Amino acid sequence: MYLLGGLLAFSVLIIVHEFGHFILAKLNGVKVEEFSIGMGPKLFGVKGKETEYLIKAFPIGGYVKMLGEEEQVLDSRSFSSKSAPQKLSIIAAGPIMNFVLAILLFTVIGSVRGFQIPVVDKVENNLPAYEAGIQKGDKIIKVNNKKISTWDDFFTQVYMANGGNLNITLLRDAENKTLNITPVKDTKENRYIIGIYPVVLEKPGFSKSVSYGFTQTNTIIKQTFDVLKTLVKGKVSSNDIGGPITIIKVSTKAAEQGLIPLMAFAAYLSVQLAIFNIIPFPALDGGWIFLLLFEIITRKKIDDNKIGIVNYIGFAILMTLMVIVVVKDILYPIKL
């Protein structure tokens, strides 16, 4: 049951993403030939008026196939016949829908469960925060010149410092105070701490829940780009990289914890899916967005057949990488 819950949550992210492409294609008068959830062999499908809706064997993605997407087609309803701004709206709709889904999920989570804010509620005696003079009611504004909007922002900066010095800016009685604090290792939790606990809004109103939805999504975006930076710098071990199997495992564990943890993981994953798709690589939405922005700025049309060839090559590379990651997932799984 939990496995099905995890698969369902992951599938919802794909459906929402592809629905963004689908609905904007329809609004722009583009014929959609296929709407697929999953990849690989076809399990079953339903033929609509002009679109075939498919479920495929491997729940690791999906796609919307539009007339004239991969080559020039002389048809008023083809993707290739549309203007660059129209194409851009269709392509960008997928990632945007994933960001919107994350905001909605975090809003619901905040309204039901409440959420932590970067305001100090309790200070542990004889720990760095106490010794530095942090007090109950202090609002954390910045850590190491990074703006703090959520408690997760603060937690991330402590984690990223890895025991190094923290330059913390606080708001107290309408005045800013800056403190330098060195975290200590909590051997039980195996992480660095300074000894403070946040205020928890247990019954936030609608506006505060919506605000939390936006700020928490923004926090996940910043965390993701921080991880990408460390990945580019080669500071991430291959043991920390997982693929579809890892995602399903984590989704299943989240489902075991209850609906709210599963929703939180789905929101987190929705942001990851959006960001991954806007990477400017052929066959990804980001590759299309880059080319279309180039067309809009330079007013120079790029040959659709050439774009199709480049996207085909990009897709082949992505599928190869996917196979490698899946094999790694099977042979060297991440320990959860």
UniProtKB/TrEMBL annotation:
<dbReference type="InterPro" id="IPR041489">
    <property type="entry name" value="PDZ_6"/>
</dbReference>
<keyword id="KW-0482">Metalloprotease</keyword>
<protein>
    <recommendedName>
        <fullName>Zinc metalloprotease</fullName>
        <ecNumber>3.4.24.-</ecNumber>
    </recommendedName>
</protein>
<comment type="similarity">
    <text>Belongs to the peptidase M50B family.</text>
</comment>
<dbReference type="InterPro" id="IPR008915">
    <property type="entry name" value="Peptidase_M50"/>
</dbReference>
<keyword id="KW-1133">Transmembrane helix</keyword>
<dbReference type="Pfam" id="PF02163">
    <property type="entry name" value="Peptidase_M50"/>
</dbReference>
<feature type="transmembrane region" description="Helical">
    <location>
        <begin position="309"/>
        <end position="327"/>
    </location>
</feature>
<dbReference type="Pfam" id="PF17820">
    <property type="entry name" value="PDZ_6"/>
</dbReference>
<keyword id="KW-0378">Hydrolase</keyword>
<feature type="domain" description="PDZ">
    <location>
        <begin position="102"/>
        <end position="174"/>
    </location>
</feature>
<dbReference type="InterPro" id="IPR004387">
    <property type="entry name" value="Pept_M50_Zn"/>
</dbReference>
<keyword id="KW-0645">Protease</keyword>
<keyword id="KW-0472">Membrane</keyword>
<keyword id="KW-0862">Zinc</keyword>
<dbReference type="InterPro" id="IPR036034">
    <property type="entry name" value="PDZ_sf"/>
</dbReference>
<keyword id="KW-0479">Metal-binding</keyword>
<dbReference type="GO" id="GO:0008237">
    <property type="term" value="F:metallopeptidase activity"/>
</dbReference>
<keyword id="KW-0812">Transmembrane</keyword>
<feature type="transmembrane region" description="Helical">
    <location>
        <begin position="258"/>
        <end position="275"/>
    </location>
</feature>
<feature type="transmembrane region" description="Helical">
    <location>
        <begin position="88"/>
        <end position="109"/>
    </location>
</feature>
<dbReference type="InterPro" id="IPR001478">
    <property type="entry name" value="PDZ"/>
</dbReference>
